[in-house]
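Posting for a labmate who doesn't have an account.
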Amino acid sequence: MKKKTLCVFILIFWLMGAVTFLSIKIEEQMIPQVTTIQPQTDISSQEGQLPPDCLVETEEGEFLFTIYEGSGWEAGTRVQTFSGVSGYTPAEPPNEDYIMVDNIWSEFVWHSSKPIQNGELVEAIRTGEQAPDYWLAVFPNGLPELGELPQGIQVEEQSGQAVLFQVEKASHPYMEGQAKGMIPALKEGGRIYSFTDMSLFLQALPALGLLLAILVAALLLWAFSCFLSKEGKKNQKLIAINLIVGLLLLVSIPLVLQTIELPSSMLPRKEITDFGHYIQEFQDFFSGLQSFAPQASAPGEYLPPNLPKSEAGRAIITQRNNLIMRPALIVLGGMAFAGVIILMEKFVIVRRSIPKFPKGKKA
């Protein structure tokens, strides 16, 4: 009974350590990123103007959000819905050019990497970086008329349900609301994805697979250690080896977590384990890319099937194909690692059980 209790205690201790490391990383990754703006105003005016894309769509409607610093249990940079006597409220829609507010001193949320809600902890981005990027707009019900595009944005490929933009100076981190604000025709009815964020997400897959491999290896070694504990005195050294390996695996978890940076725009709103969200994002993104593929090759010309014409589109599909199965292979590697240790320990047990005879005598 004591041996079983000890085995369960060791497992709980290991899992608590692993869950603690994971929960810290998950909390960090799930914090929405926001850009901020202050109202434009004249010196003599007590009211300011905000661009219309400062409106944030929530489950309760569209709101303006301001930034504030929390205290106590709610310490950190947070957002709250804006309201005032003469300020904007959802019942008073703004005109098409700007929103009038009566608070000219607060910082307002301009764009967010994903939906936000009142009182939520956020990461305020005040000095973002700019770099070239590709944006993929996917509209399952049909692509709207694009109209005139801003300078620095041009169409790379287009189909009936999707369009690929080449962007000379895209802000990073990527925020879909900002992209839709630059191309107003795409504000409703679809999604706009960043190639940079999709590439970063794909690059994180091997490290995610390594985390799962560590968990699987630790569980296998724990199960075999429980088996060894039936003859604890004989197997003390083997059990000690498994405990040391288990501790090393536990210590390696935060080291692996440091290498994982998932783009906020690719994450679910609430639960990071919402696998249905990731499946849907992947399907929409790569289905949009495949919609650019030609139906058939012209005479004398060969075009690979299901591939877009653009080099950027082909490159990210190649990256997906190279990385999508790597987590499974890494997990198998973790199982093999634990399996090798178990087989070696079984060999020691079997060899130890073979009777030894004094020299010069036969059985």
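Reply:
Got it, the structure tokens are right above this. The helical segments are 2-29, 176-182, 195-228, 236-257, 275-290, 311-323, 326-353.
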